[in-house]
Specification:
globular, mainly beta
């Protein structure tokens, strides 16, 4: 059974940085699954943030975070990360790691989420 567990969220001031982590167990996703970060702000729909493609290691970012966020994983491919810099209040959301690139709740495996609040 695939299990994903996010951590690293918290309260940060505008302009600050955070690194989110996602512990992956139950499968080896190398050459198997693309891995993504998705977020949901209060009262808004789920928003795709970033993906790292399993075979090529190519990364992709939403326009709203490109240049500020970096997705990565460890060599053992048991951890997924999202380094977030130059944070803005509009980055406030629950952040989820998941398998695949879809934002549909019924597609892929999801973690429980970690809350990020950007506020002064």
């Amino acid at each position: 059974e695939v299990q994903l567990a996010e951590s690293g969220g918290g309260l940060v001031q505008p302009g600050g940085s955070l690194r989110l982590s996602c512990a992956i167990s139950g499968f080896t996703f190398s050459n198997t699954y693309d891995m993504s970060w998705v977020r949901q702000a209060p009262g808004k729909e789920l928003e795709w943030v970033s993906t790292i493609f399993s075979v090529t290691d190519v990364t992709a970012y939403a326009a709203s975070v490109k240049g500020r966020f970096t997705i990565s994983r460890d060599n053992a491919k048991t951890m997924l990360y999202l380094h977030m810099a130059s944070l803005k209040p509009e980055d406030t959301a629950m952040y989820y790691c998941k398998t695949g690139i879809s934002t549909r709740r019924d597609e892929g495996d999801w973690g429980q989420g970690t809350q990020v609040v950007v506020s002064s």
